[in-house]
């Protein structure tokens, strides 16, 4: 029950839902106090605008994507014993595949994991269960299928019990501990990496991060930074998801 409550609470704190809630509260408050009602409505509008401006949101994203990309030079000198790739969602009932497959985010991760395996020859563990009960196939099972069929990579371990990043780490450690493996290359999105490192190091791993899909590659100024965009708001929602998730993990698990 707590798991579902947290998911709903996170969605309500994401843009534009949070801003809409603030403005609706302002409209309701107008009946009793026009002054405070207007303050809430204007605040919601200002936050909505700010959340879509790249020049405001970009510094936040840069701060979150602080883990540098893994270089090939460093890759050849490290002593990791396995590659662990985290699930990032499923694409359910995909009509073009006549069934479930991996989401776009998960596809990006397993593509990079396949690349790293070609470079290192290390075994791969895929981790991700069924987040909701109505999902029939685990993320790990879908990831293994795509890795083997589409990228011709091999998967040695499937972890199918986890429902979040913390559980990814805990269940993966139980599997790899049996093989006396605690040094891993961890594959996930750049913005997701800080929360992932926190979780996997807490589980007992020595982590070599392998982040991907950076939003903050360019640090220069351009006029486009002043133009509101839906893409910026979407990126901010990921930032807030990671921030809330990290705070929740520290409160609940640590």
TrEMBL record:
The chain crosses the membrane at residues 12-30, 39-57. One of its GO terms (cellular component) is plasma membrane. Keywords: Membrane, Transmembrane, Transmembrane helix. Pfam families: DUF218 (PF02698). GO terms for biological process: Gram-negative-bacterium-type cell wall biogenesis; peptidoglycan metabolic process. The keyword Nucleotide-binding does not apply. Residues 82-245 form the DUF218 domain. The keyword Transferase does not apply. This is DUF218 domain-containing protein. It comes from hydrothermal vent metagenome.
